[in-house]
Amino acid sequence: MSIFNTLGRRSILQAGFGAFALAALGPARLWANPVFRSNPFTLGVASGDPLPDGVVLWTRLAPEPLGEHGGMPMLAVEVDWQVAEDRSFTRIVREGVELARPELGHSVHVEVGGLRPARPYFYRFFLKGGEASVIGRTKTAPALGSSLQSARIASVGCQHYESGFFTAYKHLANEDNVDLVFHYGDYIYEGRGGTGGGSETGGPRSMARQHVGQEIYSIEDYRRRYAQYKMDADLQAAHASAPFVMSYDDHEIDNDWASAYDQDGVPEHIFQLRKFAALQAWYENLPVRIGQFPKGGMVKLYRNLDYGDLLRIHVLDTRAYRSQQLCDARAKNPCRAQDDAKATMLGQAQESWLNESLGNNSRWNFLAQQIMFSPYDLRKEGATEPWTSSDDWIGYPAARERLKKSISDRSLTNVVIGTGNSHRHTVAHVPVNDSELEGPALAVEFMSSSISSSGDSDVNWTGQETTMRNNPHMKLMELQRGYQIYDVTPSLWTTHVKVMEYVGKPGGKISTLAKYAVEPTRSVIEKV
Ligand code: FE
């Protein structure tokens, strides 16, 4: 039964639905004394986008996560929050009240300031009736420009619910001293329930558990899909363990979308409505700041975060401003010339911003983005034609060259590109010239595999030998599920490639498949 049904006439009157009472209450229609049949903090807590003096804290009230409106009445609810220096909350340093509004799916975003740099904090939410959330741990960024000896970053994404369990997140939550988690996107998948997750190598579709409902289009559809994902205890544990830096890729809206275009040729003005709904739900369900509040069907996703003098993180948006793919998978759109200089991946404003953002004195530049930047050829053994995807940077050659020029014009040797999307671990040099794959490198790229997407269907992949032969600039390609951990110091960037034993059932173990190191003075990857 919905909590809505428990709201009697008396409590409605008490809540002040009359016009005069509304004026007295201010702009929000408030449910002043909420009574819940069960704890409404079913979707956990999260924090994100650390600054030296604070983070954004997140939760969302949903006593019945998959029910209509998450089981909430269409009234605002006051949610108390606290930030403390210790897990037992004996040293509370900040506290306040924030409204969970029906307009925003009863989500709560608190931008906490006034904290001290580079230290862990603990936070929780609670209601007047006494219901409390779990306790989350977060960590502020170091002071701007301060001398920093190390940072530990995780890179995660591609978490198809039907493809597998999120056990990798449980392991991530147990990693020591993670400063922040970069999420490269595909936090949800939009497909209808029961179709399973696709394989990367022609293996069977994986079906470990099932999406509720059909393909998602409306705001309520997207909210319910997020709710289903966010009920996962392992995902909640990861969010409660460290701040996330969120982005999105394609499946938060629709497979392979590009600016105003979806993959099915739906008229732009109609696809725009779906984007509005999807981006609103993205904002509502994730620990992002007001700077990422959707406006006019757009989110300003690209932004940078600094970690002392050690690291600048440039979060990129490779979806919202890009030209349509060169040729789409179903060949509805004509191909354009390879040298089409107008074709863009980032759009002009973001391109200029990135060029400026790369002008800094940080020891490292981390391009936190979604899709493969390095050249590649994934043809199978015996195939005569190269195999690439027009959805990747390689499908936007002129835009790709412009970003390479941005790096080379500044003579940067410290650029690490973080990537996801392809459901595999890849470790690659980005060659100065694509025609000399074994020649000098301009940057390095670490592609993190999926948390669950593609399931266990690709585990027996045997294409390594062919792939390594055709891609001599790569050090690794591996199709097991997992994530990556980056240990960053002034003299060395070390990437830990973490792989899951299996994800098709709960309980898979994690292990370190390999470690790779790079120095900031030369883009050369060494296996360590
Ligand atoms: Fe994906």
Can you give the helix content as a percent range? 10-25%
Sheet with most strands: strand arrangement: 10-9-8-18-19-20-21
According to DSSP, the number of beta strands is: 21
SSE order in H/E notation?
HHEEEEEEEEHEHHEHEEHEHEEEHEEEEE
Decide which structural class fits the backbone.
alpha+beta
Describe the structure.
The protein is an alpha+beta fold and 528 residues long. The protein has a seven-stranded mixed β-sheet. The protein has a seven-stranded mixed β-sheet with strand order 11-12-13-14-16-15-17. Strand 8, helix 3 (167-173) and strand 9 form a beta-alpha-beta unit. The model is unreliable at 1-25 (pLDDT under 50). The longest helix is centred in the middle third of the chain and has 18 residues, at 268-285. It has nine helices and 21 strands. The site of fe (iii) ion (FE) has 6 residues, from loops.
What is the strand and helix layout of this fold?
Layout lengths: L8 H7 L3 H7 L19 E7 L2 E7 L16 E8 L7 E9 L6 E5 L8 E7 L9 E4 L11 E6 L10 H7 L6 E4 L35 H12 L2 H9 L2 E3 L21 H18 L17 E5 L3 E5 L31 H11 L6 E5 L28 H13 L5 E5 L5 E7 L9 E7 L16 H7 L3 E5 L3 E7 L4 E8 L9 E10 L2 E6 L1
Parallel strand pairs: 8-9, 9-10, 12-13, 13-14, 14-16
Antiparallel strand pairs: 1-2, 2-5, 3-4, 3-6, 6-7, 8-18, 11-12, 15-16, 15-17, 18-19, 19-20, 20-21
Helix pairs in contact: 3-5, 4-6
